[in-house]
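To assess whether ligand presence alters the predicted conformation, the chain was also submitted together with zinc ion. Input:
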Amino acid sequence: MTTHIAHLNCATMRPVGSFGGRGLPSDMVAHCLLVERPEGLLLVDTGFGTADLADPRRLGRPFVTMVRPSFDPAETARAQVEARGFTCDDVTDIALTHLDLDHAGGLSDFPRARVHVFADELDAARNPKLNERARYVAGQWAHHPTWVEHRPSGEEWFGFTAVQALGDDVVLVPLTGHTRGHCGVAVRRPGGGWLLHAGDSYFYAGETLTPPTYQRGLTVFQTLMAANNGQRRANQERLRTLRADHGDEVLVFSAHDRSEYAALAAAESH
Ligand SMILES: [Zn+2]
């Protein structure tokens, strides 16, 4: 049972090359969730962690130069958990959409948490191909977290194959393409219905509207970043259908869209 869900921005990024909004967005967030359950706290994604801020070089010079994270200590998940009166040890579980460096950086701030991830994603991160090496930073999990590897079972969630991660309240939904084992994380809302953290399966809210709208620079970027662009596009289409058919039951959002984050964070505080 989930009792409260908070929306956190665990990294602000201002990429080079926004070209007045025609390229990459000029302002991106790392949208994470802090979910309160009687059994403990769950984080969905972690943004950058205190170890990244202490040594940004581990993220790689190209990434830091191009993406320009603000590295604000107050934005780390750890700082925001503590600001809410919790301790890091209260976080018993972390569910990751994928292991890209801007999603897994906070893992080591919560060393006691079990880390739920798709088996294919952990395999990709541990054995990256040449063109995957820059996106995964092994130092972010050098503390040997307790991994909980999930594999798709016969379960279904709104027509998607899925796997229950924490009871029937937290469900991993494979949305591969951006990375080999990329997934969405669905969390049951206390008041009914679901939130679906769709990770990096899209970057701009318009991409999942009917009809979709695209920002050309972002489409090029996502295509370049995709481990499998065909799967990425097919899953974006399925999210569009989900939004059209079940938008009243499932609230879908992505990791990096500032407007989606702002709307949900504002709604939460009312
Ligand atoms: Zn990302």
